[in-house]
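Record minuted for everyone:
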Amino acid sequence: MDSGGMTHAPRTARPRRTAEQTRRLLIAIAMDLVLTRGVTSGVAHIRLQEVLRIAGLTTGAAYRIWADQEDFQRELAAAVIRCRIDEPTASTREVVCGEGWPEHLDDVIRRGAERHMATFAPENRSEVSSRIFLAALALRATAQASDRLIAASRDRHERSIAEFTAFYSEAMRRYGMRLRGTYTMTQFTTAMAALGEGFALQALEGLEHETVTRSAPGRADESWTLFGAAVAGLVREFFVPAAEDPAAEDPDAEAPAAESPQPAP
């Protein structure tokens, strides 16, 4: 009771964060800085002292979690590599089959490739999903420097390959295609991922992605991304119509003997 006769409720102490809650808070703040500023010499430009100041915490709170600045930055880099806001195939599914699968397989390839390359267009690089992808890609390029980064990179790669393997397995069944010879769907999606990430690195270098005019039987000439044209080439190499005779897959196979002409009656 105070001198005026009023009573005040006792103040409730704010619960202390656990070490894990503090870790997540600081990594989240640091990741936001990475996505805002981009990747420069890895994440060396993200200083733990700045992150602590933003969080309103003392140095002691951090050094009970990480041994030093480098330990913090290694965990931050791995967190950026693993970060996703959508499933790997979410945007592809949206543009390819969000309103139903298109009539032709070519449209699946063309739309999916266009969506992938649109991620890196200058007008879209401010989107969170684009910033995450590009930051993760830049950090993966230096992953050999740390076992932690190698593990994070492999986790991201394997998850993407698994999801795109499922997506293209479904697509090829729908369009009556099967794998040629001993190829596997994982090999196809791995090759496609290498192309997609290579073109993404070119975008990081400021190189403009080309478009080409592509002709296909029964279709008018169309404008395709260079990535899409390359994926179409992969599809021709890896897949054949499901009804095709397996013997026709091998260009070195002997042709069947021609029938002898019958004598005229």
Remarks:
- The chain has two domains: 18-83, 85-243.
- DSSP finds ten helices and four strands in the chain.
- Residues 251-265 have pLDDT under 50 and may be disordered.
- Strands lie at 177-179, 211-216, 219-225, 239-241.
